[in-house]
Amino acid sequence: MNNMKLEEKNFPALYQAADKASIDAQCVYYFALRCYLILLIVAAFVSFYWPKGVYGALLSAILFLVTLGILIWLKVQKPEDIWYNGRAVAESIKTRTWRWMMKAEPYENDFSEEQTQKEFLSDLKAILRQNRSLSSFLEWNPDLGEAISVEMKVVRSLSLAERLDIYKNERVDNQSIWYSKKSQFNKRKSKQWFIVSIVLHSAAVLMLLYRIKEPGATLPIEIMATAASAVLTWLQAKKHNELKSSYTLAAHEIVLIKSEYASINTDNQLSDFVVNSEAAFSREHTQWTARKND
Asked: pLDDT tens across 230-247, in order?
């Protein structure tokens, strides 16, 4: 059994760059959205507690202008698009990388190593050409490594049994654990934010009912309503419920994939196994991206 460990730093430099661009854009998008929602709540708070003061009105106006600026910036810069384009490029490269290392279609042993390397590099160039809009967000430094790392070449040179072992441990099992953890994480977060939403909406309703009884009462209903709307907006952006379902389905599909492992005895069988597995791994991401773009 081969104990070789593959890390993401061993993948092509283009993968590293696309992955980083995606993660950075995701962080920027959620940071901007978080600031937008928090400032809306603060503006509602200021308007409620200083409704007639000049400074209160001025501060509220400034806060609303800032939130408007954030909204315009999100619309113009579209960090969410960079996030998803970067993820699409990174996942496409990862799939191609595993196919190449496993000698799976279209990188079988039918051609020389030099030819398969050229074919692999050509595919990476094609992926980059198809996503030119991402090119300005891709960074380069020597630490990103090469297009084909030494570790990738070592894996490809291993025997059938060793390659199969590495694919099962480093790809299939890794994906199974990742999807399982992500499914549980999104289930937990969905429940937590649902409880927060219920509490805020309930508080707003109770305040409205109390105001009916005591018309002269001063209650922060607007603040509660704004906070409840902010929570709903955050939930829509994070899509915990959809991701939980999607990740759970992917995790179950991987369990079925793993059952085919024991019957692989030839390079052709390994190639089919890898092609089918990679199609399953990319299906969740493709479906999620499609839903995101609807």
From this structure: 998 998 888 888 888 888
The C-alpha atoms of residue 208 and residue 203 are separated, in whole angstroms, by: 9
Question: CA angle, 2 as apex, 269 and 93 as ends, to 5°?
Answer: 60
Map out the domains of the chain as residue ranges: 8-100+111-157, 159-294
Mean pLDDT, consecutive 10-residue stretches, the chain (294 aa), reads: 74 92 94 94 86 79 92 92 90 93 88 88 91 83 80 93 92 90 91 92 89 81 89 88 84 84 89 89 64 52
Helices (H), 8-107: 13-49, 54-77, 79-101
CB atoms within 10 A of CB 96: 23
Angstrom distance (rounded) from CA 287 to CA 61: 41
Counted residue by residue, the chain has a size of 294
137 C-beta neighbours (distance < 10 Å), count: 18
Residue linked to tokens 């030099």 = 114
- Residue 50 tokens read as 């200083």
Which residue has 């899509």 as its token pair? 239
Q: How far apart (Å, rounded) are the C-alpha atoms in residues 157 and 214? A: 80
